[in-house]
Specification:
Elements (H helix, E strand, L loop, with lengths): L1 E6 L8 E3 L4 E10 L5 E8 L4 H15 L9 E5 L5 H11 L2 E5 L13 H11 L2 H4 L6 H19 L3
C-alpha cells in the first residue's frame, strides 16, 4: 500500500508549495505492508508528484530489499494514484496490479484496505518529533521515522 501525508514544517531548508492545499510543506511517501508496517519512506518537497514519488520509492525498495516485493500481487492506493501510466510503471517494476480504492459516497466512511496506511500515519504522529517536521533535511526526517518504526513494530507483535 502506498500513500503520502503532508507535514507542517517548522525548519525550512527543503520544501515545496503544494498547489492543491496552498501551503509550503513536505510530503512523506510511504509504502507499507498489509499490516501497516513500514517498508519504505521518502520525505520530499510538497510540490512533488505522488505517483512519481511512489514509483521512486518502489524502485529504491526493489534495489535495497527485492525479497520484500517478490510476493506482492496488488498495490492498494487511493484515487490520487489513478492512471494507466502509473499502473504500467508498477507492473513493469514489480509485476503487481494497482487497485485504486475510491470513495463511493460523499459521506465519510472507512474504506477497506485504505485505512491501513492511514493507521501507520497515526502511529507515527503519536511521536512528538514526527507529528511536525522539525528537521532541516529530508534525510533526517526519514531517519527519525526509521528509528521509531522498530518500536512501533515490536508493540504490534502478536505473541
Amino acid at each position: 500500500m502506498g500513500d503520502f501525508a503532508d507535514l507542517k514544517q517548522l525548519a525550512w531548508d527543503v520544501y515545496g508549495f503544494d498547489r492543491a492545499k496552498k501551503v509550503k510543506r513536505r510530503k512523506r511517501q510511504t509504502i507499507v505492508d498489509s499490516q501497516g508496517l513500514l517498508l519504505k519512506v521518502i520525505v520530499s518537497e510538497g510540490n512533488a508528484s505522488e505517483r512519481v514519488l511512489t514509483a521512486y520509492a518502489l524502485m529504491e525498495l526493489l534495489e535495497e530489499r527485492p525479497e520484500l516485493l517478490e510476493k506482492v500481487e496488488v498495490l492498494w492506493v487511493d484515487s490520487g494514484y489513478d492512471g494507466d501510466k502509473f499502473a504500467l510503471c508498477v507492473w513493469l517494476m514489480i509485476q503487481a496490479h494497482v487497485e485504486v480504492i475510491r470513495r463511493t459516497e460523499q459521506e465519510w466512511k472507512v474504506l477497506p484496505k485504505r485505512w491501513v496506511v492511514e493507521r501507520t500515519f497515526g502511529w507515527l504522529n503519536q511521536y512528538h518529533r514526527l507529528s511536525k517536521d522539525y528537521e532541516h533535511l529530508p534525510e533526517m526526517s526519514e531517519a527519525a521515522i526509521y528509528a521509531v518504526m522498530p518500536r512501533i513494530m515490536l508493540r504490534r507483535l502478536v505473541v
